[in-house]
């Protein structure tokens, strides 16, 4: 996969995860948010070990693109939160 495509896919997953994590309950039901994060985790954990490592490394690499420190740390820790490591 081209690196730019891989970067953009991981950033898109990060943005979705940030939305699920930080959306106000008036915008998104917390149970629905948790369910979707679990679904995301399940799909990503189905990858090969090498692919999980590549995706984990890419989450950490793209985390620096977020200006907000809380979101930067959230994305950096996504591999662990999603059970990829």
- Number of contiguous helices: 5
Radius of gyration: 13 Å
What string gives the helices and strands in order?
HHHHH
- Supply the helix-strand structural class: mainly alpha
The overall strand count is 0
Contiguous runs where pLDDT drops below 50 for at least 5 residues: none
| Ends distance | 22 Å
Strand content: under 5%
Report the principal-axis shape: globular
The figure for the number of domains is 1
In percent, how helical is the residue content?
over 70%
The overall pLDDT average reads 94
Major beta sheet summary: none
Overview in brief:
The chain is mainly α and about 80 residues long. About 75% of the residues lie in helices and about 0% in strands.
